[in-house]
Amino acid sequence: MDAPPPDGRPRPPLRLLPTGGAVQVNQPLPFGAGRNGRAAPSDLTETMGKVARGDKQAFSALYDALAPLVFGIVLKVVRDRAQSEEVAQEVMIDLWRQAARYRPDAGSVQTWAATIAHRRAVDRVRSAQAAADREHAQAAREHTTAFDEVAEQVETRLESEQVRRCLRGLTELQRQAVTLAYYQGLTYREVAEALRTPLPTIKTRMRDGLIRLRDCMGVTT
């Protein structure tokens, strides 16, 4: 079992409820519907107070009442259902951990949960976009770095017999990869996709191919 979080409260992913210092795993309830389709209670202030005191039954009721609302808000922002389910799960965990912070005079339980759900969803979208941007930038850097040392001296001679002869000295995969990169300007990842070859293999073959091509053409760095 995972170690408890710093606040000592059990982790409740979906329906993980505290029981005697441990946790009890119940069957997860699908996001998007309350228990047996019944409507959520309109006033959850008392329930939230019980959750803040570690009441597992209260958290079960809170989950049933708020899961559809939370999932709906997250799905509108994230749009991907699988990711939305993950984020909604994180929101329910937040509601369990932060229950003691809820203040009725600041708004209803539903409003508080909706605020947390929206913030979590926006964070997920931003995180995904940032990861995609980093991957694209890294691919561009790798592509540029790999060719910088030989590109200037080789570029003007790509059509020469010497280049064609040196290319024939490469393996088939090396030749295809180098040709795609030089003639079409593809990145490592794009070359890997075009040749249906794992990215690490393409990186290795490209590096070895460039070294062989450089040595064959007598290019100095």
TrEMBL record:
Q: Which GO terms describe its molecular function?
A: DNA binding; sigma factor activity
Q: Which UniProt keywords apply?
A: Sigma factor, Transcription, Transcription regulation
Q: Where is the RNA polymerase sigma factor 70 region 4 type domain?
A: 161-213
Q: Which InterPro entries match?
A: RNA_pol_sigma-70-like (IPR039425), RNA_pol_sigma-70_dom (IPR014284), RNA_pol_sigma70_r2 (IPR007627), RNA_pol_sigma70_r4_t2 (IPR013249), RNA_pol_sigma_r2 (IPR013325), RNA_pol_sigma_r3/r4-like (IPR013324), WH-like_DNA-bd_sf (IPR036388)
Specify the protein name. RNA polymerase sigma factor SigK
Q: Where is the composition biased (Pro residues)?
A: 1-15
Q: Where is this region: Disordered?
A: 1-21
Q: Name one GO biological process term.
A: DNA-templated transcription initiation
Where in the numbering of this chain does the RNA polymerase sigma-70 region domain appear? 62-129
Q: Return the similarity comment.
A: Belongs to the sigma-70 factor family. ECF subfamily.
Domain of life of the organism encoding this protein: Bacteria
A Pfam family it matches = Sigma70_r4_2
